Each structure stands twice: as C-alpha cells, then as structure tokens.
Amino acid sequence: MSETSRKFLIGMLLFLAAGAGVGWLYGHLDWGLLAATLVALLWQVRNLLNFERALRTGDFETFRYGEGIWEQLFSRFRFERERGSRHKKNHRVLLREVRKSTNAMPDGAVILDVNNEIITCNRAAKRLAGLKRKKDRGQRVDNILRDPGLTELLHSGDHKATVEMMSPVNDGDWLNCRVVPYGADQKLLLLQDITERMRLSKMRRDFVANASHELRSPLTVISGYLDGLADDENIPPAWKKPVAQMRRQAARMRQILSELLELSRLEGAGPAKSDQPVDVRGLIEGTVEALGGHANTARMNIEAESTAKLQGNSAEIETVIVNLLSNAIRYTPPDGEITVSWRSGSEGADLTVADTGEGIDPEYIPRLTERFFRVDKSRSRDEGSIGLGLAIVKHILARHDAELIVTSETGVGSVFRCHFSPDRVVIEPPVPLAGDG
Ligand code: ADP
C-alpha cells in the first residue's frame, strides 16, 4: 500500500473515531458515528462528481483538491492525458513526414493486404498507374491493373521476380513491377518507370536488326563474286587459297548476320504460340539423323521415352535441338557419346542433350548464354563457333516459358537441360485400337 493510501485510510478512521467520540460525549455514540460516516460519504461523492465533470469537459484547472488521494489521482490522470496527447501529436508529425517522403519517391508504392486489396498508395502510384489513394482503397489491385503477368506475380509469392507491363494511364510507357513482403501479412507493390530503359533496348535491337539487314545485300554481292572466282579455272594458282579463305569468312559473316537477325526477332516477339502441338520426339529423331553418322562424330543415342508434345513453335524448338546437338558434336571427341532425351511428368517436360566431351569450367557456365561468349575464343573461332547459339536457345526457351539448366564438369562432359512447365506440355490420350469398345 502506498503512503498516500495509508494516510487516506488513517485520516478516514480518525474522522469516524472523532465523530463517534463527539457522539459518546453527548451520550449518543451511534448517532455521532452515523453523522461522521454521512459527512465522509458526501465529501467523497462530491469529489467523484467533480472528477467525472473534469473528465467530461476536459477542464482540469477549475477543480482543486488540495492534498491527499484525490489530488494524487487527479494529477496522475492529467499527466497521463497530456503524455498521450503529446505521443499522438508526435505520431501525427511522423506520419506526415513518412507520407511526404513516400510521395517524394519517384517509384510507385502500393500497400496491399493479404487479399491484394489496396490499403494505401503514394503519389507516384497515381502518376504511373492511375491508382487513387482514397477512391481505390479496399479494391483488389489486379482488378484495377489488369495484366496477366502482374496477376501471376501477386499470387506467386516470389519476392525476387519482376514483371514488365504497359502503363495503364500513359500510352507507350512501361512499368517494372515487384512485390515484397511488408508488415504482418501485407505486401508492398513497387512500380518503377522503365520507359527509358525499354526505349534504349528497342533502339539497340532495331540498330542491330537494321545493320544486319543492310549488311546482307553487299555481302551477297561479295559472296557472288567470290563464288565466281572460285569456279574460274583461269585464276592464278596463288589466288586459290586466299579466295577459298575469303569464301569461308564470307559464309561465316552471313551466318553471324542471320543469327543476329534471328536474335532481334526473338527479343521483340511475345510468348510463342502454336497452331499444332510440336512433336518433339520426331524433331529429335530428324535432327540426330541429319547431324549424326559422320566418321569423326561421337556416337549418338536417343532416349525419347515420352510421346508428349509441346505447345510452341516447331521451327524454334528444332533450332534449340540443332544448336545444342551441334555444340555437343563440336565439343565431344569421336570416341565420346552424346545422348538426347525427352521426358515428361507432372513437373513438366525435359529436353536434354548430354555429352561426354571436354566439359565447361563452372565459372563460365553463367556466361554461356551471353552474346558472342565463347570459352576458348581462339580455338572455337577456328571451329566456326560464333557464340550466338546459346543466346538464341535462351530466347527461344523464354518464349516457351522454359529455362535452360546447364551442368558440366571439365574433362567429364556437359548436360544442357531445357525444362518446360506443365502448362506447355500436351499429353495426348492413346489412340484406341480398331475394334476397341
Ligand atoms: P556457338 O554460336 O559457337 O555455337 P554457343 O553460344 O552455342 O556458341 O556456345 C557458347 C560457348 O559455350 C561455346 O563457345 C563453348 O565454349 C561453350 N559450349 C557450348 N556447348 C558446349 C558443350 N556441349 N561442351 C563444351 N562447351 C560448350
């Protein structure tokens, strides 16, 4: 018990004892005690009513209680109240500052609840995507920003992935979207304006495509004259070797240009569509037959266990098989072995080209799909390698929602696995035999 409470109780008991004492002097102890109790009660009731009025009106100045338990109660309450309003003011200032800084951010930020409903958003989200803080509160963001990629991103739970989408308010503008976890069960949708980046990348693509296209015509003329010279019996013997060399280089240049054009086309194209499911097994068999069987080529095996087909572009899937298989042939000695397999299951389907060739140093594996990347530049140039094959493979796979997974060990061999998602795989039901009921 606190000092004040003890004093209050002792004061009360002394007051009642004094009342009883006065009553006893007049021969009526009970009346004296009753009168003192009534006075004490009235005093407490008065203080209680004043306290209630102070709480109601907020006026803590008019009523004074002198010392004692009521004064303590009163000042304690006033102190807590003032502290509370000081905190509230600080929070308001802080909130205003946070809002000011998020509004100053160049990127859009949208806070979403567990159902992807908008809690709040900053000014940039309005400028970039047309979201309105008050009007759109409680609305599902994927109902306002209608983009299949964004919808998938919101449901995927992948906080590292990003998607690009066209701005719904500014024609021709592009946004990069990312979703990161925020608070308890909330998400932060970040929108970044990437219009400039997209414009530069399109400019680069167009430049490469135009330059490759323009270079093709003069090269055709040069190749024509070189072919004529090669066929000419009358040219001096000393020219024969340089002409042959020039023809080889011209052919190489033609290949570079056509691969660059193919890359530009793939980069600018959207997801691959198909009129008819692609018969991957048939393509593997055809490519192995076309490329294999030479004296200095490693032995080739086909392990096409699956009859599943692919939703995609047949010519592009064939390019993937041709590129992977010609690489395997180029980098595997004749006594080695190359296995091409096609497997499908509930996880999707895998097209794999494995070889027992020279392998690739692990440090180079992440760079294999870069344009013009070759592990051993001087050697691979001699062998006709350009370094665009795997870049083309990567782009084709991306258009088919697939990825390239490379594993390799130097001196042991390499495995190039193309993994297709189940959405792309078509499992056809077996054809019933004639007479089957
Ligand atoms: P290219 O246009 O020469 O075929 P790629 O992009 O296909 O170029 O391959 C890039 C590089 O990756 C090659 O130069 C080679 O160093 C390496 N590489 C590709 N496939 C294999 C393989 N099966 N075994 C070893 N190295 C390979």
SSE topology sketch:
Layout: H1 3-25, H2 29-57, H3 69-104, E1 108-112, E2 118-121, H4 123-129, H5 141-144, H6 148-156, E3 162-166, E4 174-182, E5 186-193, H7 195-231, H8 237-268, H9 280-291, E6 299-304, E7 309-310, H10 314-330, E8 337-345, E9 348-355, H11 377-382, H12 389-399, E10 402-409, E11 413-420, E12 425-426
Parallel strand pairs: 6-8
Antiparallel strand pairs: 1-2, 1-5, 3-4, 4-5, 7-12, 8-9, 9-11, 10-11
The structure holds adenosine-5'-diphosphate (ADP).
The CATH topology of the largest domain turns out to be: Heat Shock Protein 90
User: What's the number of helices?
Assistant: 12
- CATH homologous superfamily title of the largest domain: Histidine kinase-like ATPase, C-terminal domain
Low-confidence regions: none
Estimated radius of gyration:
41 Å
Give the strand content: 15-25%
Description:
The chain is of the alpha+beta class and 437 residues long. The chain has twelve helices and twelve strands. The chain folds into four domains: 3-94, no CATH class; 105-193, Beta-Lactamase (2-Layer Sandwich), CATH 3.30.450; 197-268, Helix Hairpins (Orthogonal Bundle); 277-426, Heat Shock Protein 90 (2-Layer Sandwich), CATH 3.30.565.10. Adenosine-5'-diphosphate (ADP) is lined by residues 323, 327-328, 331, 355, 357-358, 360, 368, 373-375, 380, 385-391, 414.
